[in-house]
Amino acid sequence: MAARPLVRKGAEPLWAQLLADLRARLDAHEFDHSFPGELALVGEYGVSRHTVREALRRLREEGVVVAGRGRAPRLAAPLEIEQQLGSLYSLFSAVESTGREQRSVVRTLDVRADGVVAARLGLEESTPLVHLERLRLAEGEPLAVDRVWLPEEVAAPLLDVDFTHTGVYPELERLCGIRVAGGRENIRAVVPTAEERRLLGIDAGVAALAIERLGSSAGRAVEWRHTLVRGDRFTLTAQFSARDGYLVGASAS
User: Fold this and answer.
1) Cα 155–159–165 angle (5° rounding)?
2) Would you say the C-alpha torsion 89, 117, 144, 138 has a positive or negative sign?
3) What are φ and ψ of residue 200, in 5° steps?
4) For 21-53, how does the pLDDT look when each residue is reduced to its tens digit (9 = 90+)?
5) Does 56 or 78 have the greater pLDDT score?
6) Which of 15, 100, 155, 246 could form a disulfide bond with 130, CB atoms 3.0-4.6 angstroms apart?
7) What is the per-residue pLDDT across 173-220, written as a single tens digit (0 to 9) for each?
8) Cβ 214 vs Cβ 226: under 8 Å
9) What is the Cα–Cα distance from 157 to 159, expressed in whole angstroms?
10) Orientation of helix 14-27 relative to helix 38-45, angle to 10°
11) Sheet harboring 128-138: ordered strands across?
12) What is the maximal distance between C-alpha atoms in the chain?
């Protein structure tokens, strides 16, 4: 699609008009192979370099394009986390191992009773549980909604932890002396609810992976976790051969 002429005396600033047109052209996949430089945009739209830079600054803030000093802007690579299936892995570690910053928005951190979860942990239904719910972000973009339950008798010190930029496993080991060393995990594709789509920033056409984990330490179940992760941003892989079958890798937690 061709560049849309900008309205010179309109109520909307030129940079905002330019930004809207660039977004439309991006949605039409016009720049999939290359993104025009500043001077090319100046010539195409007949605007000042300042106007172009302001529009590009907004696209950079949105994570759509990247540009360094003295370098032409280019489309940002899609954010995708690849994790090998293994005996134990950490989403926190999986994100940060790619060089991206992992941060969390803590939605809930309290003590509650949940009969269903307690039964999964092999406990009485009325057993108090530490419950942590976080929206996990990778480079500021929603990646997963993570919900964790642990017995209060062993995990109470976690109630004072700021989980904005740390994982459950290192804090559980540091403060409680408990190392989750194994367990059982179930992974399935699901259709997110409207509220889950809102939290993850996805539309109805994007599926998600539901990861349910029963984590254990010294033969005792100490963690029940339900993670809903964006299907367009997370991939689980396994290696296999005709001789050995499937070989799953493990990353440090």
Assistant:
1) 105
2) negative
3) -85, -10
4) 998 888 888 887 788 888 999 999 999 999 999
5) 56
6) 155
7) 999 999 998 888 888 999 999 999 999 988 888 889 999 999 999 999
8) no
9) 5
10) 110
11) 102-113, 128-138, 141-151, 220-230, 208-217, 182-190
12) 72
Question: Is 159 in contact with 109 (CB distance < 8 Å)?
Answer: yes
Instruction: Identify the burial level of 134 via C-beta atoms within 10 angstroms of its C-beta, where 0-12 means exposed, 13-18 middle and 19 or more buried.
Output: buried
Residue 221 CA from chain centroid, whole number: 27
How many residues comprise the chain?
Answer: 253
The answer to whether the CB of 79 falls within 8 A of the CB of 98 is no
Lookup result for tokens 């100490």: 222
Neighbours of 123 (CB within 10 A): 16
- Note the pTM of the prediction, 2 decimals: 0.64
